[in-house]
Specification:
The complex is a heterodimer of chains A (264) and B (378). Chain A has 264 residues and is an alpha/beta fold. Chain A has helices spanning 36-51, 67-76, 94-108, 128-136, 189-195, 247-260, and strands spanning 2-6, 9-11, 17-18, 25-26, 32-34, 55-61, 80-84, 113-117, 140-150, 153-158, 165-169, 173-177, 203-206. Chain A has one domain: 3-Layer(aba) Sandwich (Rossmann fold). Chain A is built from six helices and 13 strands. In chain A, strands 11-10-9-12-8-1-6-7-13 form a nine-stranded mixed β-sheet, sandwiched between helices. The termini of chain A are far apart. The model of chain A has no long low-confidence stretch (mean pLDDT 92). Chain B has 378 residues and is α+β, with helices and mostly antiparallel strands. Chain B folds into three domains: 7-114, Orthogonal Bundle (Butyryl-Coa Dehydrogenase, subunit A, domain 1), CATH 1.10.540; 120-228, Butyryl-CoA Dehydrogenase, subunit A, domain 2, CATH 2.40.110; 231-377, Butyryl-CoA Dehydrogenase, subunit A, domain 3. In chain B, 54% of the residues lie in helices and 16% in strands. Chain B contains ten helices and ten strands. In chain B, the strands form three sheets. In chain B, strands 1-4-5-8 form a four-stranded mixed β-sheet, covered by helices on one side. The two termini of chain B are 28 Å apart. Classes of the chains: A alpha/beta (264), B alpha+beta (378).
């Protein structure tokens, strides 16, 4: 079995601040991390690897420094890593990104499972995984919170707000992971030291010339989405003090107001 | 000269920090209150292979050296000095076996302590042999194919939790220091029992016990190195251990500074945050400066050791300086926190108590001054 995990390097939003004037993220000095949902995807791949005989390949599209995310994935236990990096990929929206990732997966060739995170914490679109599945013309199950295998098929528990679905799918299949799927492991000390061992050339870098791809569908120009404006929604709160002679009267007034607002 | 960590070390620091925040910090106050040895944390440290730092991969270790150990121990100490002590002291056992053990001993012990979940301990101190290790009374007399050990070791960190203890005992009591030898004693060996569990001022989660040997028979192949060479081995091991304590002290100080910065930015008095009060900001300057100096001395000692250079003096300096820094910084940090600092709701009260041990164990500050002055004046 072969599993491909798509992951994205994102700024650690716990440490990101927003420039209120431009509405953009202040990325200076902000550490980068593997997108949390993608880490769940990788963890699941590593658990499947431990239980079955398979290999785990991680791919990421991004600038050269995205190598750090791939090194971390190798340190966690992935077998190989491919960085998709080229100026031509810059400015890609989800469509263009999925186009590049799908082309890279086609080049890798055979695979049984593609695991992606549900969505990235910097864009929150949740589109790239499903788009890859569409481009590759394979089934997809999103929001996976449990994954099993039976008779060569994947049995996936898909979380929704109204209840879980248990879906059986033939393979190859693309699955998107949510945080309920597992708790990602820490990279081991040995894994880290080996991932960065001097002379270890364990990350392949593929550019546009390495892929069979329609150049009009990628990068800033190939992206159908244009960001017109981004801004931070302002949150306003109003409060009202409830007066009364005693606690009982205040409570009665409070209940009246809450039921007027249909909150109780 | 390059003052940068490598990319791998940077990642290790990130992982250790995250581990400390998520696995160590949440129970730091609890293990301080109860004095419980956090076995689950030790198991997690085994999974991440913090326990295997410094042991080669061929023996089940994680590779890496003293710099990696400093990184991890100091990150752990920022959140919990007891957990940092547990790891730091544990690795000394493996260091002794690795440096002086036979191939058979390395194959037997190293994988178990580096990645097998077994704790190692180091037993040199006795009730009347603290700084004066030469006054040790514990004996190990060869009787056929076994050493028979009699005596009491005290203040042994992790001694009650350890699967293996490197015990220093006199195989020839007539020779004093030159009769001291190192023998591995396994948990459960008849005649080996745990005595008093100490109630300490700090690092409560790092269990400190008395070890009692009463006609304890240990196979003679458990002798590490040669008979009579134990004192030299112990001194070499302590050079390494001191770098570990220095890293722990550094981490405590760094953690106390982080807490103080956070507190000063949020605590409002006289209508403004504490950061607007110059008297307190100068405390921060002093704390940060001392920490920076301590940090580079610790890393320098680690660098000397892992590159095989003499490091006795520098390890002593790093430990002396970092431990004094830890006491200085936790004192000011508690002061910055005022009344809240004195309460157990904030970690400063614990950090202040924990910091003190770093000036005492693995050689007191006074012993380090002796080591340093002898080296400088020689």
């Amino acid at each position: 079995m072969k599993i491909i995990v798509c992951l994205k390097q994102v700024p650690d939003t716990n440490e990101v601040r927003i420039n209120q004037e431009t509405g953009t993220l202040i990325r200076d000095g902000v550490p980068s991390i593997i997108n949390p949902d993608d880490k769940n995807a990788l963890e699941e791949a590593l658990r499947i690897k431990a239980a079955h005989d398979c290999t785990v390949t991680v791919i990421s599209m991004g600038p050269p420094q995205a190598k750090d995310a791939l090194k971390e994935a190798l340190a966690m236990g992935a077998d190989e890593a491919i960085l998709l990096s080229d100026r031509a990929f810059g400015g890609s929206d989800t469509w263009a990104t999925a186009t590049v990732l799908a082309a890279a997966i086609e080049k890798i060739g055979s695979y049984d499972i593609i695991l992606c995170g549900r969505q990235a914490i910097d864009g929150d679109t949740a589109q790239v995984g499903p788009e890859i599945a569409e481009f590759l013309n394979i089934p997809q199950v999103t929001y996976a919170k449990k994954i099993d295998f039976k008779d060569g098929k994947a049995i996936v528990t898909r979380y929704t707000e109204t209840g879980d679905y248990v879906i059986e799918s033939k393979m190859p299949v693309l699955l998107t992971a949510i945080k309920e799927l597992n708790v990602p492991r820490y990279p081991t000390v040995k894994g880290i030291l080996n991932a960065y061992a001097p002379g270890s050339d364990n990350i392949s870098v593929w550019g546009i010339d390495d892929l069979t791809i329609d150049a009009t569908q990628i990068g800033l120009k190939g992206s159908p989405t244009n960001v017109y404006k981004s801004f931070v929604p302002t949150k306003s709160k109003t409060n009202e003090m409830i007066d009364g002679l005693n606690g009982k009267e205040k409570a009665a007034k409070l209940i009246g107001k809450l039921s007027d607002l249909k909150l109780i | 000269m390059d003052f940068k960590l490598s990319e791998a070390q940077e990642m290790l620091k990130k992982v250790a920090r995250s581990f400390a925040e998520n696995e160590v910090a949440p129970i730091a106050a609890e293990i301080d209150k109860t004095g419980r040895f956090p076995r689950e944390t030790f198991e997690k440290m085994t999974e991440v292979m913090f326990t295997g730092i410094g042991t080669p991969e061929a023996y089940g270790g994680a590779g890496g050296g003293d710099t990696e150990k400093v990184i991890v121990v100091s990150e752990l100490a920022k959140k919990c000095a007891a957990t940092a002590a547990i790891l730091s002291i544990h690795t000394i056992f493996a260091q002794v076996i690795q440096k002086y053990g036979t191939e058979a001993q390395k194959e037997k012990y190293l994988p178990q302590v580096a990645s097998g979940g077994c704790l190692g301990a180091f037993a040199l101190t006795e009730p009347n042999a603290g700084s004066d290790a030469g006054a040790a009374k514990t004996t190990a007399v060869l009787d056929g194919d076994a050493y028979v050990i009699n005596g009491t070791k005290c203040f042994i960190s992790g001694g009650g939790q350890a699967q293996f203890v490197a015990v220093f005992a006199l195989t020839d009591p007539t020779k004093g220091l030159k009769g001291l030898s190192c023998i591995v004693v396994e948990k459960g060996t008849p005649g080996f029992t745990i005595g008093k569990i100490e109630e300490k001022m700090g690092i409560h989660g790092s269990e400190t016990v008395e070890l009692i040997f009463d006609n304890c028979r240990v196979p003679k192949e458990n002798l590490v190195g040669k008979e009579g060479k134990g004192f030299g081995m112990a001194m070499v091991a302590l050079d390494g251990a001191r770098i570990g304590v220095a890293a722990q002290a550094l981490g405590i100080a760094e953690g106390a500074l982080e807490e103080s910065v956070k507190y000063m930015k949020t605590r409002v008095q006289f209508g403004k945050p504490l950061t607007a009060l110059q008297g307190l900001t100068w405390y921060i300057s002093d704390m940060a400066t001392k920490i920076e100096a301590a940090k580079w001395l610790v890393y320098y000692a680690a660098y000397l050791k892992e590159t095989g250079q003499p490091h006795t003096k520098e390890a002593a300096m790093a430990k002396l300086n970092a431990s004094e820094t830890a006491r200085f910084v936790t004192n000011l940090a508690l002061q910055i926190h005022g009344g809240y600092g004195y309460m157990q709701d904030y970690p400063l009260e614990r950090m202040y108590r924990d910091a003190k041990i770093t000036e005492i164990y693995e050689g007191t500050s006074e012993i380090h001054k002796l080591v340093i002055s002898r080296s400088v004046l020689s």
